[in-house]
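G.,

No rush on this.
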Amino acid sequence: MRSILSVGLPAAGEHLAWQSQLMMILGFINMIGPQALSAHVYVFNISAYYMAISTAIGMGTEILVGHMVGAGEYKAAYHRLLRSLRISIALTAGIVGIAAIFRSHLMDGFTDDTEIITMGAGILLLSILLEPGRVFNIVIINSLRAAGDARFPVMMGVFSMWGVCVPLAYYLGVHLDYGLLGVWIAFTVDEWTRGLIMLARWKSGVWRRKSLVRPGTVQVLEA
């Protein structure tokens, strides 16, 4: 149970940090105006389809990496993650690119308000930069957890979400009056900041010393 919670509790903590960050930023968007809130909700729902592919690849890779790390096949696990990351980025970029081309038509399906359509279309265009950064986090963090390295993603997630995203969203979106675009620029900076740090963590190989199970045994060790 201790070993399970050593991975499960940090994973839950990261989700809690993300949800609380989102609630705070929704408060900023409310300050910008009701049209901004509507555009945010519509684009956020569309982005769920972007994340579906990277989430599926991330979960599948997590299972494979967990088996490889448990068997002591660290080199295979290392390259498996990088291959999955490249595939996920390519597929996500393709879908986001298509959505960006038809961004106004996508927004037309939700509303006839031209202001909301314009704001939403601008965010969908920005997603070309944002979503690849999100892929890094979805795919790599899952594999870090599978390797037993669960605490580091949480610490960096809390730092980036609350130390970078929240203050930057307020500064750009409210203080500088960039509106919803400023808020989503903050999301983009946060995703790429965490994503590149997660990639550096994976390449560092520190996770190889975090395995909960030794090769060839079922002995459970402390993280």
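When you get to it, here's the other one too:
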Amino acid sequence: MSLEFRQVTVDEVDAYVTLMLAAYAPIKALGIKFDAATTDREKATRHLLQHGVYALYADGNMVSSITLRYPWGPQPGPFGLPHIGWFGAHPDYPGKRYGQQVQERLEQEILIGQLRAPAVSLGTAIDHPWLKEMYLKRGFQPMHTTDLGKGHITLYMKKVLNVEQHEVWLARQNATNNGSKA
């Protein structure tokens, strides 16, 4: 079996919608209102055009994907860092770790290899039965919660990718915040 990691193109929107709806069906059944759970062709096309969306393909089939929202884009994360958005693996491939693999490839090849990002953030529903624990195991740390008006409380988490760069980033953030208070 061959695995390929690459950016999703707009002409793959139908495969992308199929993947997102399948991956998010169990979350939708829990009553958690993630945007990806109810996407359609129009929303998914806009999503693909506005963000970096990457996928893992097994023998040419899109089996998992992950969205990278940029600090300078239309939906920046809360920390001024790259932010993981829609993230899912197709349920037809249990035990293959395709979700973990797409996340690891995004971190290594894009966030560290291309963007030299000091850290990455994501948000999840605090009442989801297993996502917080999964992200903790993958190196994310809880930062704060907020109510985005989606019917659940969002927990923001951050993963440091490069300790030295992160310390420089934190110092710059602190200097900026202290400067704006003066």
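The two ends are 59 Å apart (CA to CA). The longest strand covers residues 61-69.

Enjoy the weekend,
O.
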